[in-house]
Amino acid sequence: METNTKLKTPRERIEIIQKYKQTGNEAFKVGDYKKAFQNYHFAIMYTKSVFEKPQTMIPVQSEKLNEEDLKEFKSLHAAITLNMALIHIKQENFDKALKECDQVLEIEKDNVKALYRRGLIHMNHRHDIDKARADFNKALSLEPNNDAIKKELKRLASEEKAQDDNLKAAYKKMFL
User: How far apart are CA 2 and CA 11, in angstroms?
Assistant: First the structure.
């Protein structure tokens, strides 16, 4: 696949990004996370080549992007970054996964998938129930019919109840 980001039109770069993303998705589906990550990394390099500051998604002045192309670059960047976060989660690199989710949320504060994945990290690996709840609640407010988010909020509530019960039992033993 093409690796030279110079002298490509925005549309050509979008097509190359989509090819890298698709190849990454195929590798991910068969469990080849290294190959998936490499392809996502190349795709991200192409998205970043269009922006002065990728974290703000401000296009380089010389880029002649129409609104449709700009929107597509941003969307691809978010999707690929979240795919990279999922690979980090699968490989138990939770700090990196959290960073990837945070990057997406800096650009798209209402990205449900980023909120959901970050909530999972906070709940399962950071054991930060308050942050997990905040992410899940915000995601649910954006997608009220999302069953996966509802399921995690129920699981969060039951874990919180179990922790409270354990704490009460421990205090009860202390004062007997």
Answer: 14
The region that residue 163 occupies, defined by phi over 0 for left and psi between -120 and 50 for alpha, beta otherwise, is alpha
Q: Which residues pair with 51 in a beta bridge?
A: 59
| Residue 132, token pair as written in the block | 């997990």
Rounded Cα distance between 113 and 79, Å, is: 9
Dihedral sign (CA 62, 74, 80, 110): positive
What is the average pLDDT across 22-33? Answer: 97
pTM here is 0.83
Among 136, 67, 57, residue whose Cα is nearest residue 104: 57
- pLDDT (mean) for 90-101: 95
Is the CB of residue 57 less than 8 Å from the CB of residue 51? yes
- Given the structure tokens 């068969």, which residue do they identify? 30
